Amino acid sequence: MALLRSIATVGGFTMISRFLGFARDILIAAILGAGPVADAFFVAFKLPNFFRRLFAEGAFNAAFVPLFARHMSEGGRDAARRFAEEVLSVFVVALLLFVTILQIAMPWIMHGFAPGFADDPLRFDLAVAMTQITFPYLLFISLVSQLGGVLNALGKFAAAAAAPIILNLCLITALLGLSAFVATPGHALAWGVAIAGAAQFVWLMVACHRAEFQLCLLRPRMTPRVKRLLVLILPGAIGAGVVQVNLLIDVVIASLLPRGSVSFLYYSDRVNQLPLGVIGVAIGTALLPLLSRQLRAGEDDNAMGSMNRAMEFALLLTVPAAAALMVIPDGIIAVLFERGAFGAAETHATARALAAYAIGLPAYVLIKVLGPGFFAREDTVTPVKIAALCVAINLGLNLLLMGPLLHVGIALATAISAWINVGLLLLVLRRHGHFRLDARLRRAIPRTLMAAAAMTVAVSLARGALADFAASDVFARGLTLAAVIAIGLAGFAGAAVLFGAARLSDIKRMLDRSSR
């Protein structure tokens, strides 16, 4: 399997999903703005997604894919299918109980997740009602994560990568079609979330059928294989989802700040999530099964090479993306969201948070690259120790920075803790002899930084030269942003080739065969 080809498959569908997500968020910003209904919906949307990313996408896939790959290599498709069915049967029962309990307890749970809402009865009641509507999404999307893990382990990435497109289509349809029939547009979005979970589950079931890997429900039993999976999942929940833990802490702290703070962080994180999702999630999804197979076959050198190439590719894309988000955040937020209920003040507040989040963008992606180095070896304990420390650091920085910087301090704390996480992961991998920078990566890092610096100069000059034109009207503002981004892309591409950070021949070679 060519690593970059798999990354491109996942990243391509993720890119489509992210652009539809921007269309969705543009509608939300125009209709809901950054008021109490928006704050309540974003909390209601965040909670099931937090548990999904923490347990289902994060810890579950980190533990399930290597075990599934082992059963596939040792016993063939039938053994792997049996293992997947055992897990699915226990998973369904556990999720039903978990979702039911949390829905019943939501009025009390909300005090912990959004304590600042307790002093604002409107936001509190809206958040509880909407979260109770959205929470069944967790049941379906967690099952989607397992089905996606099966397909990814089989080398079929397209169906799982395309599933989030369904979510955005459902939310757009719900916002436009259901708002007139429910209490608020936020309630319409909440129902859209619940419907989207069921739709994605059906989509992945069909994909498994087409892959001739149908799964059936068995009588739930805690078999030794399921117990082994749970042993790996429990510590991995924090280790694989440290970014999500930090983002949830952001929401908890932001609920204590003035109205709109939750929304400012949501909109800025959505922009930051575009490169993170397209690059980071794609690399992590493609790299884990590849490393699992290479290590299972005793190809330690190839596994080391795969991690180096994944890190090289990640930095080549995220460093310039982070630089651009820090240089032109106001222009990006204004073009995407400034209309309707979302005004210039909201743009400025959101842009400041985006610039802070962008500082940690390469780190968020590198966590996705380094994590599989542990998970492929069935080591989920080490990352959880590192993650626990980073969560504590994030919380401390939040409390330290929220006073002088308000919501911007929360975003900055998340970025700093992400870089600390990367440093610790690298240190441990190197000490165990599981990772070292090869000569090619050592050459690429400073050259990528130089190319990004050249791009930053080009973007700054272009923004200044077009400032008067951008101020004329909304259309001119969008055209200016497109021109500045195009100049930045061209500038980085040219500088990357000039400085030797990237060579077209290398990229073509990596697309044609497995990375070495």
Condensed summary:
With 516 residues, this protein is mostly helical.
Describe it.
- The chain has 2 domains: 3-436, no CATH class; 442-516, no CATH class.
- With 516 residues, it is mainly α.
- The model is unreliable at 510-516 (pLDDT under 50).
- The protein starts with a helix and ends with a helix.
- α2 packs across α10 (261-296) and α4 packs parallel to α7.
- The longest helix has 69 residues, at 36-104.
- The chain has helices at residues 3-32, 36-104, 106-113, 121-134, 136-153, 158-177, 185-210, 224-239, 242-254, 261-296, 300-327, 329-337, 344-359, 361-375, 381-405, 407-431, 439-465, 467-470, 474-499, 504-512.
Task: Describe the SSE topology.
Elements: H1 3-32, H2 36-104, H3 106-113, H4 121-134, H5 136-153, H6 158-177, H7 185-210, H8 224-239, H9 242-254, H10 261-296, H11 300-327, H12 329-337, H13 344-359, H14 361-375, H15 381-405, H16 407-431, H17 439-465, H18 467-470, H19 474-499, H20 504-512
